[in-house]
Design a protein that fits this description.
Blueprint lengths: L1 H34 L5 H41 L9 H39 L6 H32 L2 H4 L2
Helix pairs in contact: 1-2, 1-4, 2-3, 3-4
């Protein structure tokens, strides 16, 4: 039963990661370049709003799966690997701590983008569409901030994935 639960938890964790990171790649490398081809600014803005909202739903589900499976995996690692020593006596504890710290930073970056910079960019673009005097430099600066936060979040996610692979390499992490 322990192996079955471990396999289900690993699979759920990986599914959550796929749901989290997949849309990030799509937005960065497919949507952004493709959206430049939409000539109508109102249509582009509406499409961006729809796509990013759905990303939020998919990514949120992914994060919940990651959290649920991750909690199970960390709570059962001693039993699963038959380990009795101290948490920081092996690489597992050190790598896990760095991974969780990186996760916290990533969540702050993504949260700031999602709750502050992204909505600000949409508001500025809407104001410009309504004919309000919004300096192009302000929109450009906000767009650059949005892209920088998105890329930072993606890079942090990839670093977290590397650490996850390290944790699941028993000969490395249990030394």
């Amino acid at each position: 039963m322990s192996d079955t639960l471990h396999i289900i938890a690993i699979w759920t964790h990986i599914l959550g990661i796929a749901l989290w990171v997949g849309p990030q790649f799509f937005l960065a490398f497919a949507w952004v370049p493709a959206s430049r081809q939409i000539a109508d600014p109102a249509a582009r803005l509406q499409a961006m709003r729809t796509i990013t909202r759905r990303f939020g739903y998919i990514g949120g589900i992914g994060l919940l799966l990651i959290l649920a499976a991750g909690l199970y995996l960390i709570s059962s690692y001693r039993d699963y690997y038959h380990y009795e020593g101290g948490f920081f006596a092996i690489r597992f504890g050190v790598v896990f701590t760095i991974k969780m710290t990186t996760l916290a930073v990533m969540l702050i970056v993504v949260g700031y983008h999602t709750l502050a910079i992204g909505p600000r960019l949409v508001r500025l673009m809407e104001a410009q569409l309504k004919g309000e005097d919004v300096p192009a430099s302000v929109i450009r600066k906000t767009r650059l901030q949005s892209m920088a936060l998105s890329m930072t979040g993606l890079l942090l996610t990839l670093a977290i994935m590397v650490m996850g692979a390290m944790l699941n390499t028993v000969t490395f992490s249990l030394r």
